[in-house]
Every structure is written in C-alpha cells, then in structure tokens.
C-alpha cells in the first residue's frame, strides 16, 4: 500500500510539473501587465560582451520570470489570499499583513515645534471622517475602509523641519524676477493627511508641520497658497481619489479657487463647468498595494470642462528614452486640453493635457494682462483647467521635462505670475527642487542624445513606485486627429491602460491664427 501511495504521489507531482513546464515554456508570454500598469521585460539582444560579462544570462532570467504566462492572474490570486490571511491585532481594529516592514519615519517630533506665524496652518482633525478599519498592504501602503468605500493611502515619513529647499527655490525665483513677476508657493498634501484612522497614525507623519516649515521660510514677498486648509474644509467630499495616489479633480478645483483668491484674479464656480465622468476607474494604488480590495472597489473619475470661455492649447512635446531622459523636442502643435477616457480605463488621470512630457500653453479669451506659469509635478496637471477664466494665458511646465532657459521663457512669454504646485513628497525632496533652480541658468538645449545613465529620480514623481508606459489618444474624430500630438505620455506616475482616450471638443479662441507659439 505504501508503494502504491508513493507511485500516486510521484505521478501527481510529475503531471503537475509537466503541465507547468508546458504552460511556462510554450504559452504566449505577455508584454504588458494591466495590473501593474507597466511594460514587462523583453527578451534581451545577444552580444558576446553581454554573454562574457554575465549580463545576457541575467537578463534572460529576468525576462523569463517577469513575463511568465498568466502572471497577472497569479498575482491577483496571491492578493486575494493575502487579504484573507491578514493578521488581526484584536480590539484595535488595525490589521497588518504578515512580514511587512515598518515605514521609515522622520527624525523629529510630531510637529509640535513647527514654525508659527503668517501663512501657518493648523493640523486637520479627521475624527468622524476616517474609517477605523485599516491594514498595511504591499510597499507600506495603508488600506482603510471596506467594500466600495475602501481607500489606499501612501504614508508620509517627512520631518517637521523639512521642505526648506522648496521654499528656497521659490525665494530664488522671486530674487531673479523681482517685482515684475508674482511668485506663489503651493504645497499639495496627500490623502493620508485627511483620511488616516487615529489608530494607524503611528505609521505616518503629519504633513501640516512640514507645510508650516515651508511657509515659514518663504520671503515676505513670496505668497503662500494654503490649500491644506481649503481641502480640509471639503474633506467629506470626493477631493481625493480612493484608488489612485493623486487628488481628485474636485480637490484641484478648491486649490485653484484658493490660488485665484491669493492672486486676486477672477474665478468661476462649478456651475460654469460641465461635469464629465469615467466610470469604474481603478488607479495606481491597485498595482502599488497589490491589494485585491482596491480592484474590487472601482470609483468614478469626475472632471469638469469650462463653458463660456474660449481656449486653445499648444504643446511642445518631448520624446524620452527608457530611463525617462529627454532625447528630442518637437515643434509647437495644437491639440485638445482635455482627453476623455473610456469607462474602466486606468489612465483617466491623464485627462489633462495627456501627460507630462511637454510644455503646455493655453491661450484663453480672458483679457486681463495676466499670464501664469505653473511649475508642477503630476498633481499640478489638474489645476490649469480651472484657470481659463482667470488668466489670458496659462503655461504649464513639468519639473522633469524642460530644456529651455527659464529666464528667457518668462520674458519671451510675458509671464506675470509663477505658481509652484507640487505634492508634499516632491516639495520635501531637495534633489527634486534643485531641478527648478537649474532651469534659471541652463542653456536652451537644441541637440539631444540618448542617455546611458540609470534612471534619475528627479525625472519622476518621488511619490511613485514606477513610471507608467506611453499611450496615444484615440483618433475617432478626423478633424481632431489633425491636431493631435504624435505621442502623449501618461502623467507619471498616473496609471495607464492600453485603451485609448477620445479627445474632448473645446471652443476656439478668437484670432487663433495670430497667436504666437510658446517660445
């Protein structure tokens, strides 16, 4: 009997091994992961040098494991098992997955000694808003709530003494441009500041303390834009996406409103906009957290397009290599500002301008002599669409993709206002901030070469876990197709799908033929 049982066991193992070998060796290998929103490893090119150095066999091994058949199905199964097996900590209602390391924390207190004075903010009391049910998922991401109200949050580990570099760069711009240009400093908090349960606050740091430190280091003639308080006043609304690390377009609306107030320019309420919806949206946090609860709780991605104002958008597009370094710059081309994505498309945050790798200029029918330049990360993408009633021109530059000289650009385009609009992770990062400083002295680049360097974190959102691949807009309308840019990269790290967005129609400004392209 024992020998029969052994034969049965060996037969089952052999059959299973053979079946897996057939699947992994003969089935088609995927090239893209919808779950992780990234291109998978490709088979490496062979060279004798690579073979001798060992890089070829290493890359083959990476390709084999990264592109295994049904990888997303296996990952989803793993997520579901982890969700079932999470460890409870008793009455505290805070649960953690096993073998999850703690998050790095700042080296100071909880911000009680943060600078006080003009422009300072008070910490937000989220009692009654935050869901007490919480767990830590992959990469230290906090998942709170349950059912269709689940929300993924990225912990902040910054110090109350940090962010000085962000204030200094705003001060440097004021020193450079003087009274000719108004300089504004906006620090965008992330969702964990408003929705972290009290019992889970031990894994994150208060963001208000860092914001106070930044505001406290600004020159008296640099204007702080306090969106922390404005967002807190509307925290019970959908101001942040539940399944993505970005804020929601509604949150950007309240931030733009506060900026307009500080800048003393006109501003229209939401009744001057058309509400658009992308249903069944699941953003970046599903792939980052690898928590099945996020996938099972899709949300509506709601954005707003302005009515009663004419506007035309001009892009200068950059091409980038695999390491996100700029390799080329196109000529100015006209295109839509808003792109509409199909229901279920994970790239919906790229509704605004289609991404980051470009310089954007929007000419509006507002004639008040005010021209704003927004220096931003991907959070800032949602702001410009609310400012067409406020400025006659809106320029947008991403810190990762700008190869011109900033002083020359500001003078040539007659910029009157510069707004720094970046999330707190980037505002805290001195290396990120140094990019803005370098813009002031760098020469206009006209010749580009493919980079051989490793990926530079300043080219990406420091809040991201990986960069999303590229996509193109859907060319359903032939008249709109003529105005498309050739390649519209996803805003890093906004999630992307292989599905293509349709362009939004928009009104054209008067005398567009006389509008000079951005220089």
- C-alpha end-to-end distance: 85 Å
Low-pLDDT segments: 87-117, 452-462, 464-499, 505-519
Q: Which structural class is indicated by helix and strand composition? A: alpha+beta
Rg estimate, integer Å: 24 Å
Strand tally = 22
| Proportion in β-strands | 15-25%
Please state the average pLDDT score. 78
What can be said about the biggest beta sheet?
A: 9 strands, mixed
Helical content (DSSP H or I, runs of 4+): 25-40%
Number of helices: 15
CA-based shape: globular
Written overview of the protein:
By secondary structure, the chain is an alpha+beta fold. Helices cover 27% and strands 18% of the residues. The chain has helices at 2-26, 48-53, 55-66, 71-85, 164-177, 192-195, 207-216, 227-232, 249-263, 284-289, 292-295, 406-412, 424-427, 430-439, 478-481, and strands spanning 32-33, 38-39, 87-88, 94-96, 134-136, 142-144, 151-153, 182-188, 223-225, 273-281, 299-306, 311-320, 326-329, 333-335, 339-340, 358-364, 371-376, 393-398, 417-423, 470-471, 488-489, 502-503. Strands 8, 9, 12, 13, 14, 16, 17, 18 and 19 form a nine-stranded mixed beta sheet that branches. Strands 3-4-5-6-7 form a five-stranded mixed beta sheet. Strands 1-2 form a two-stranded antiparallel sheet. Strand 6 and strand 7 (151-153) form a beta hairpin. Helix 5 packs parallel to helix 7. The longest helix has 25 residues, at 2-26. It is globular, with a radius of gyration of 24 Å. The termini are far apart. Mean pLDDT is 78; it is low at 87-117, 452-462, 464-499 and 505-519.
Keywords:
519 residues, alpha+beta, nine-stranded mixed beta sheet, five-stranded mixed beta sheet, 15 helices
């Amino acid at each position: 009997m024992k020998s029969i049982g052994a034969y049965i066991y060996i037969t089952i193992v052999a059959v299973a091994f053979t079946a897996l070998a057939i699947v992994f060796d003969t089935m088609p290998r995927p090239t893209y992961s919808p779950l992780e929103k990234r291109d998978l490893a490709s088979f490496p090119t062979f060279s004798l040098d690579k073979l001798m150095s060992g890089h070829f066999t290493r890359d083959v091994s990476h390709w084999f494991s990264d592109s295994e058949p049904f990888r997303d199905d296996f990952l989803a199964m793993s997520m579901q098992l982890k969700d079932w097996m999470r460890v409870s900590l008793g009455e505290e209602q805070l649960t953690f997955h096993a073998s999850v390391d703690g998050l790095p924390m700042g080296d100071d207190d909880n911000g009680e000694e943060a600078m006080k004075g003009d422009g300072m903010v008070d910490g937000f009391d989220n009692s009654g808003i935050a869901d007490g049910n919480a767990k830590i998922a992959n990469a230290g991401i906090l998942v709170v709530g349950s059912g269709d109200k689940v929300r993924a949050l990225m912990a902040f580990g910054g110090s109350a003494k940090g962010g000085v570099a962000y204030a200094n760069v705003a001060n440097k711009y004021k020193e450079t441009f003087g009274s000719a240009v108004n300089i504004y400093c906006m620090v965008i908090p992330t969702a964990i500041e408003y929705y972290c349960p009290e019992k889970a606050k031990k894994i994150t740091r208060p963001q208000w303390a860092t914001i106070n430190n930044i505001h406290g280091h600004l020159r008296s003639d640099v204007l702080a834009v306090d969106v922390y308080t404005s967002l807190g006043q509307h925290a019970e609304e959908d101001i942040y996406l539940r399944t993505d690390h970005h804020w929601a377009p509604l949150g950007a609306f309240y931030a733009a409103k506060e900026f307009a107030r500080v800048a003393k320019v006109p501003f229209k309420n939401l009744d001057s906009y058309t509400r658009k919806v992308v249903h069944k949206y699941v953003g970046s946090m599903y792939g980052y957290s690898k928590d099945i609860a996020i996938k099972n709780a899709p949300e509506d991605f709601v954005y707003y397009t302005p009515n009663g104002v004419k506007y035309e958008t001009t892009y200068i597009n950059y091409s980038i290599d695999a390491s996100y370094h700029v390799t080329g710059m196109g000529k100015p081309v006209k295109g839509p500002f808003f792109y509409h994505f199909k229901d279920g498309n994970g790239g919906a945050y790229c509704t605004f301008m289609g991404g980051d790798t470009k310089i954007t200029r929007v000419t509006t029918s507002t004639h008040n002599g005010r021209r704003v330049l927004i220096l931003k990360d991907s959070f800032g993408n949602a702001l410009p669409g609310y400012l067409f009633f406020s400025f006659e021109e809106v320029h947008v530059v991403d810190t990762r993709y700008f190869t011109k000289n900033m002083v020359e650009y500001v003078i040539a385009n007659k910029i009157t206002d510069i707004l720094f609009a970046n999330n707190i992770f980037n505002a805290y990062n001195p290396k990120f901030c140094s990019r803005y400083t370098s813009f002031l002295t760098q020469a206009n680049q006209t010749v580009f070469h493919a980079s051989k360097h490793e990926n530079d974190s300043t080219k990406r959102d420091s809040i991201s876990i990986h960069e999303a691949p590229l996509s193109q807009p859907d060319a359903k309308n032939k008249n709109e197709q003529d105005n498309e840019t050739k390649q519209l990269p996803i805003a890093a790290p906004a999630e992307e799908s292989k599905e293509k967005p349709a362009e939004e129609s928009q009104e054209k400004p008067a005398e567009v033929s006389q509008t000079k392209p951005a220089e």
